[in-house]
Structures are given as structure tokens and as C-alpha cells.
Write a structure and sequence with these properties.
This is DNA repair protein. Pfam families: Swi5. InterPro entries: DNA-repair_Swi5. This protein is mainly alpha-helical. The chain is 73% helix and 0% strand. Helix 2 crosses helix 3.
């Protein structure tokens, strides 16, 4: 069974959604392509992860050379254990 929604309520809902879309488009910026922004963000995340992985490899090698643990190197360098 479907609830009956008046035409007036439907029009109000459509107008509210259109206003929300316009507001979001204004916030995004004129002539901005959301898909291009997402692709750029993903590319930057990949670069960040590659740099982080390389840093972790170096930290691991440093720990081996110092005959200590990665955790101790993190503590010495005041690095967070997460992220």
C-alpha cells in the first residue's frame, strides 16, 4: 500500500531538493567537475600511501640497524603509531 502524497507536498519536496542541489553546486564552485575532483583526490591518496609505505620501509631498516623495534623508532622520532 502506497501512502498518498499531495501534489503540493511533492512540489515542495522537489523545490527543496533543487535548492539543495544549487547550494551544493555553488559550494563546489562554478564549472567544477565532481568526478575530476574525486579522481584527483584518489590520485593524491595513492601518492600519500606510496610515500607512507616508503617511510615505513626506511623505519624498519633503521630499526634493524639499531637492533631495536619499529615501535621504539616511532617513539624516538615522535611519530604516531596509527595512520
Amino acid at each position: 500500500m502506497h501512502a498518498h502524497i499531495s501534489a503540493k507536498k511533492q512540489e515542495a519536496r522537489v523545490a527543496a531538493l533543487q535548492a539543495e542541489v544549487e547550494s551544493l553546486e555553488k559550494e563546489l564552485g562554478a564549472h567544477e567537475d565532481a568526478e575530476a575532483i574525486v579522481k584527483k583526490h584518489i590520485k593524491l591518496l595513492h601518492r600519500y600511501n606510496e610515500a607512507k609505505d616508503a617511510a615505513q620501509i626506511l623505519i624498519g631498516r633503521l630499526a634493524t640497524l639499531k637492533e631495536t623495534t619499529v615501535k621504539q623508532i616511532h617513539d624516538e622520532l615522535d611519530l604516531r603509531h596509527s595512520d
